[in-house]
Amino acid sequence: MIDPISALSPLDGRYAKSVETLRPIFSEYGLMKARICVELEWLKALSHEPKIAEVPEFSRETIAEIDRVMNDFSLAQAAEVKAIEATTNHDVKAIEYWLKKRFENNAEIQKVNEFIHFACTSEDINNLSHALMLLQARDEVILPKLAEITVKLQQLSHDLADVPMMSRTHGQPATPTTLGKEIANVLYRLNRQIKALKKQEFLGKINGAVGNYNAHMVAYPDVDWETHCRNFVEQSLGLTFNPYTIQIEPHDYMAEFFQTISRINTILIDLNRDIWGYISLGYFKQKVKAGEVGSSTMPHKVNPIDFENSEGNLGMANAVLGFLAEKLPVSRWQRDLTDSTVLRNMGVGVGYAVLGWVAHLRGLNKLEANPATLAADLDATWELLAEPIQTVMRRYAVPNAYEQLKDLTRGKDGITPESLQQFINGLAIPDEAKAQLLALTPALYIGKAVELAKRI
């Protein structure tokens, strides 16, 4: 193992702990383990086909041994595969040779060992392996990590639902909202994308060199190979069968998957920047940790480093994932090899995403609302009530309602409660409408924000 201090990539160096759950999935070892799973499940599937008489059903003992090899594949065994690859200069062929050697003492498998990798091109094994890796990453790492974020955002939405806050549109004071409602807006966006992640199909094929079962049908013309392969992909591996491919599965589903993750990252980048701004305004404070240093020269500072770290790493993730989504669906004619080296970077893109999510969650857990600053901001900006006043004036057909409030408030410094009250008292509207407006304050002018935030 590489010493983290000497690692070339920060994912395996400085940030190794934050992404350690991805390492067994996307590492070279993880790819080998997935390939072994595909090869052995394919061998079992061949034994289940009665028309392939040369591969009889395996005994329970042999099935148990096959399952152990898939489940217990170790780093030491991965090193043995790499040693074979040093001679073959072919990573998938090295897996085939290692499996034949591993089962050399099992008489049942020895009799049929030429059916390991039967009728397969390397891409038959690789595309299914990559799909299994992405499926595992989604279910074991990506969705659980995103769930941590959405649970925290839901908590903040509910806890801060009734904490009034001045909005800023174009950076200028605007109609009030609440802290909780602004977080609820983001949570709704995230939930839509997570729903798409949960519905994501992971496609696979095992149809030979150019997708037509050519070798399969020469060897066993009486086997319904399309049905056999569909059942293998869907029932043995839990993937979605792709019936129409060239030599490679075209990776469109990968582009969809990576683009969905990118959209999630973009939503969180947006939130990172907003929270950064709210911390700057004093709307949020950050819990301090004993021993931490905010600035090397300014001891008073508590920098929003988690949200900055998250923004940077999510940007890195989107750069990698965007390239993967753009490149992988493109292949010259029936096959070129440009996707092979690119696919080895799936874990890099997902790794930077996870790193960004970890930092974002760490930042969320440090946040504390600062109601005093929020209230002072609202109390100093009574011109925010120009909107409801002119809207009520419109209801009662007061002419030039917008223009009157524009003359009263636009570009003016120090609009006071008293000046607004004087204006309201002079309006030709019903007394109950006047009373409603006179009772209004910027902090109370929040519409359905509390209800919406608590409902998310």
From TrEMBL:
Protein name as catalogued: Adenylosuccinate lyase
Organism: Alysiella crassa
Similarity comment: Belongs to the lyase 1 family. Adenylosuccinate lyase subfamily.
UniProt-recorded Gene Ontology molecular function terms: (S)-2-(5-amino-1-(5-phospho-D-ribosyl)imidazole-4-carboxamido) succinate lyase (fumarate-forming) activity; N6-(1,2-dicarboxyethyl)AMP AMP-lyase (fumarate-forming) activity
EC class: lyase
Alphabetical GO biological process terms: 'de novo' AMP biosynthetic process; 'de novo' IMP biosynthetic process
Its EC number(s): 4.3.2.2
Source organism, top-level taxon: Bacteria
Catalytic activity: (2S)-2-[5-amino-1-(5-phospho-beta-D-ribosyl)imidazole-4-carboxamido]succinate = 5-amino-1-(5-phospho-beta-D-ribosyl)imidazole-4-carboxamide + fumarate; N(6)-(1,2-dicarboxyethyl)-AMP = fumarate + AMP
Function: Catalyzes two reactions in de novo purine nucleotide biosynthesis. Catalyzes the breakdown of 5-aminoimidazole- (N-succinylocarboxamide) ribotide (SAICAR or 2-[5-amino-1-(5-phospho-beta-D-ribosyl)imidazole-4-carboxamido]succinate) to 5-aminoimidazole-4-carboxamide ribotide (AICAR or 5-amino-1-(5-phospho-beta-D-ribosyl)imidazole-4-carboxamide) and fumarate, and of adenylosuccinate (ADS or N(6)-(1,2-dicarboxyethyl)-AMP) to adenosine monophosphate (AMP) and fumarate.
Domain annotation Fumarate lyase N-terminal: ranges: 13-313
InterPro entries given in the database record: Fumarase/histidase_N (IPR024083), Fumarate_lyase_CS (IPR020557), Fumarate_lyase_fam (IPR000362), Fumarate_lyase_N (IPR022761), L-Aspartase-like (IPR008948), Pur_lyase (IPR004769), PurB_bact (IPR047136), PurB_C (IPR013539)
Pathway: Purine metabolism; AMP biosynthesis via de novo pathway; AMP from IMP: step 2/2; Purine metabolism; IMP biosynthesis via de novo pathway; 5-amino-1-(5-phospho-D-ribosyl)imidazole-4-carboxamide from 5-amino-1-(5-phospho-D-ribosyl)imidazole-4-carboxylate: step 2/2
Keyword annotations of the record: Lyase, Purine biosynthesis
Gene3D superfamilies noted in UniProt: Fumarase/aspartase (C-terminal domain) (1.10.40.30), Fumarase/aspartase (Central domain) (1.20.200.10), Fumarase/aspartase (N-terminal domain) (1.10.275.10)
Stored Pfam families: ASL_C (PF08328), Lyase_1 (PF00206)
Residues covered by the Adenylosuccinate lyase PurB C-terminal domain: 331-446
